[in-house]
Fold these 2 entries.
Entry 1:
Amino acid sequence: MDRQHASEERTLGLYSKIIVLVVFVSLMTTAIFYFNKNEPDIKLTAMQTLAEEFSKNVTNAHWQWQAEGRPQIVMLVQYASRLGDQNSLIETDRRPMVMSHLGWPRAEPNSDGCAKLWRMVLGTPLEIEGFKVFPEYFDGVENTDNALDAKCRFRLSVGPYFEYQIYTGQVGKVEK
């Protein structure tokens, strides 16, 4: 009887350990899914911020091109949002922008041209939060039989992207 009783206790102990392990694993899995679901998509947020900055810089360059009499190159100057000593503006960046005949930042018709456009407009490397940004050129004639539909797409390997219409200066909404 003692052997059988000892065997039943060991079996019962094993079952209780398995039940505790299953409950612990299910609680951990639930916690991981809950916290992962509520975490903001950093890549999407960063891409949206850069798309807005890209759009703002393209628009500023266009209006500066108009104001300066439509030159081939404009100097895009950016200032800090606060005043410096003696209430003067603080210059934070100065970049030349090559403009098209229609008044929008120009890109050569290839992916390298789109990469140069990114650096010219944003002044940053093709990288977001440690992830490489891939520039792609889409020829308007090949896609829609309209040369004015040419565009550059800036995308991460997986996830969000936005497009820049080369001849109209429109920056599209970030898509997934």
Note: The CA atoms of residues 1 and 87 lie 94 Å apart.
Entry 2:
Amino acid sequence: MLELGMKHCVETLVTEENTAAKVGSGALMVFGTPYMAALMENAALTLMAATLPEGKGSVGTALNISHSSPTPIGMKVRAEAEVTNISANGKIVDFKVSAYDEAGLIGEGTHQRAIIDNERFMAKTNSKLNK
């Protein structure tokens, strides 16, 4: 069961493949902001997935972050998500997210996820193909 204060961390190594230059969000060979955002979302997703019943999942609905410090190729980066609010109906979950490299804080912000029924969500998504 998901509870306020629960935390989860995930980590990655900065390589040429996850730089700003590679993804096109910048021109330098430093950890790209889109990859930092994805790592933050993954920390929240992974935390929620461990608490959801079969057939349920979650999707990101909001992300508000800052990327305050560059990270070079070769350094490890970890992202942490902490549950800060669960809506009254239990379907919307808010997180504080932060990211760190081996030298300290590199980014932080908030993230929100909605609990969904996987099959119904995909049926609705794929119905767009029939229009």
Note: The two ends are 39 Å apart (CA to CA).
